[in-house]
Design brief:
single chain; 190 residues; four-stranded antiparallel sheet; 1 helix
């Protein structure tokens, strides 16, 4: 990981307020257990306003977003709530969310056509309506999605990760149990 990526991750970790609560139940993979963690409530989410949270480890940033239109893998009454790792699959920088019609701070001439992730390190772009598919830049694969569940009260829980693995955790592998290595699980300890 580059020095700038380490500084970016450290800065985000220092200023990001984790909205996770103690794990209530868990999802098991072949060689590990993902915690079930409360991330928010459907009623508290605003369209295109991301919520930052750490998952599955206390040093892994993610974004939860209500997109306002049905999305691949979306949950909730409108199937428009998604969550993705906030670490770019190119070189591990932390990318930003861009609502439709907005520009990232590093590229004022770029205007997002839809809800997306935009990495200012090298210009990777991820389509949040389509499973964070790569739509521009050098990223070789989409960012991993967080598996979400919504209960009858509208609480949104993170319960696991979908492949590929989070950058830096056996990068590019489909074995998501690697996402549980290298830190402390949220709501628990190693």
């Amino acid at each position: 990981m580059t020095a700038s990526a380490v500084l970016a991750l450290g800065g985000v970790a220092a200023i990001t307020k984790s909205v996770t609560n103690a794990a209530e139940t868990s999802t098991t993979t072949g060689s590990g257990t993902f915690p079930r963690v409360l991330v928010g409530n459907v009623d508290g989410l605003q369209v295109n306003t991301p919520v930052s949270f750490n998952y599955p480890l206390d040093n892994e940033p993610n974004l939860l977003v209500k997109l306002g239109e049905k999305a691949v893998g979306g949950v909730g009454p409108d199937e428009d709530i998604v969550a993705f790792s906030n670490i770019c699959q190119h070189l591990g920088c932390v990318y930003g969310f861009q609502a439709p019609g907005t520009s990232p701070p590093c590229a004022s001439s770029f205007v997002a056509k839809g809800p997306m992730g935009y990495c200012c390190c090298h210009g990777s772009q991820y389509d949040f309506l389509n499973g964070a598919a790569v739509i521009g830049g050098p990223a070789p694969r989409p960012v991993p999605s967080v598996i979400l569940e919504v209960d009858s009260t509208g609480n949104v829980y993170a319960t696991g990760m979908n492949p590929p693995t989070i950058f830096g955790h056996n990068t590019g592998s489909t074995d998501v149990s690697a996402d549980l290595l290298g830190g402390n699980p949220v709501g628990g300890s190693t």
